[in-house]
Amino acid sequence: WSVFKMFLIAVLVLLGAQLTVNETHSLTYIYTALSKPVSYAGIHEFTAMGLLDDKMIDYYDSEHREKVPKQSWMKDRLQKDYWDKGTQSRRSKQQHYCGGSRNSKKL
């Protein structure tokens, strides 16, 4: 939860000068976990991405295991510590979702 709050604060600070009272923005996270690894190019056991106003702003997958920016303004304005903490958060979610999907098959 704290990584989410940190991200939300960072986004609001970065966009603060451009926001007006009547603007609406959406922040969405998509997590995809497969029940077992597959050997198809570009298909990963776990994928996570953040979208701001339907534009991808960050990405993580189980092969590269690093949260990376997908918008230049995020890369330019957020420090390495933000990405390191985000990577740890995504790795934790990968463990939770992928471990959970495997364990559920044993029931």
TrEMBL record:
**Which UniProt key words apply to this protein?**
Glycoprotein, Signal
Source domain of life: Eukaryota
Spell out the GO cellular component terms annotated for this protein, sorted alphabetically and separated by semicolons: external side of plasma membrane; extracellular space
Residues forming the MHC class I-like antigen recognition-like domain are 24-97
Q: Name one GO biological process term.
A: immune response
Region forming the signal peptide: 1-26
What name goes with this protein?
MHC class I-like antigen recognition-like domain-containing protein
Pfam families linked to this entry? MHC_I
Disordered: region residues: 84-107
Q: Which InterPro entries match?
A: MHC_class-I_related, MHC_I-like_Ag-recog, MHC_I-like_Ag-recog_sf, MHC_I/II-like_Ag-recog
